[in-house]
Design a protein that fits this description.
Order of helices and strands: EHEHEHHEHEHEHEH
CATH architecture: 3-Layer(aba) Sandwich
Number of helices: 8
Strand order of the largest sheet: 3-2-4-1-5-6-7
CATH topology: Rossmann fold
CATH class: Alpha Beta
Strand content: 15-25%
Distance between the termini: 8 Å
Shape: globular
Number of domains: 1
Largest sheet: 7 strands, parallel
Number of strands: 7
Structural class: alpha/beta
Length: 227
């Protein structure tokens, strides 16, 4: 499968390693000579200093990294926007900005908020719906946790994408431990056996690496990333 222009990075849950996976994908694509933009439709948690775009920029240095809207509270976008008194941009506005970025970049990586069906606007639009807006230029990378319960969460996410006829670039296990347990090794083997492409594992300690080391190792973590 050839990589699409737009790769939407979604998770099976929050805290599964989407941001670090986005950074690793950026670094791996840079190593191939690709120009990469990173776009986060809704960034929440600004009051705590959270900025996924800043973290990706620190680790992987994309050509462009920006958020569609920045919200203060570390919550899902709709309730966070309500507390901030902010009107969220509609999905069409995000899709338009992503199309604009795709003109000047080989790839645009779009990091979602939490899981696939978290609402990103006031009309119930989700990352899955954003993928539908973008059409055949877009595909999904699904990031899963390696621990107990991940097989069900991953299967549900893949089923939701399949039901909507949205293409999947592949699976990534984020937050992979330095010393995996029997459960984690079993989950890895099972996910590798599924028909969806398995792209690799990103270490749990990757965020603590020096950026140069992070960029050098990203291709090894995502060794199955297609051309």
């Amino acid at each position: 499968m050839k990589l699409p222009t737009v790769i939407l990075v979604t998770g099976t849950d929050t805290g599964v390693g989407k941001t670090i996976t986005t950074a690793a994908l950026t670094a791996a694509l840079h190593a191939r000579g690709r120009k990469v933009a990173v776009y986060k439709p809704c960034q929440s948690g600004n009051v705590l200093g959270d900025s996924d775009c800043a973290e990706v920029a620190r680790l992987a240095d994309p050509l462009t990294a920006e958020a569609g809207v920045v919200l203060e509270e570390p919550m899902a976008p709709v309730p966070a926007a309500a507390l901030d008194g902010v009107t969220l941009p509609p999905l069409a506005a995000h899709a338009q900005r992503i199309r604009e970025l795709s003109v000047r970049h080989d790839h645009v990586l779009v990091e979602g908020a939490g899981g696939l069906l978290v609402e990103l606007d006031h009309d119930g639009g989700t990352l899955a719906d954003l993928g539908a807006h973008l059409g055949d230029k877009a595909g999904f990378a699904v990031v899963a946790r390696p621990a107990l319960g991940t097989l069900n969460h991953t299967a549900l996410t893949l089923e939701a994408l399949d039901t909507r006829a949205l293409p999947v670039v592949g699976l990534v296990l984020g937050s992979w431990p330095a010393t995996p347990s029997a459960v984690e090794l079993s989950n890895l083997a099972t996910l590798r056996s599924w028909p969806v492409p398995f792209l690799g594992t990103v270490p749990a300690d990757a965020t603590g690496l020096d950026p140069a080391a992070f960029r050098a190792r990203a291709c090894d973590w995502l060794e199955e990333l297609p051309a």
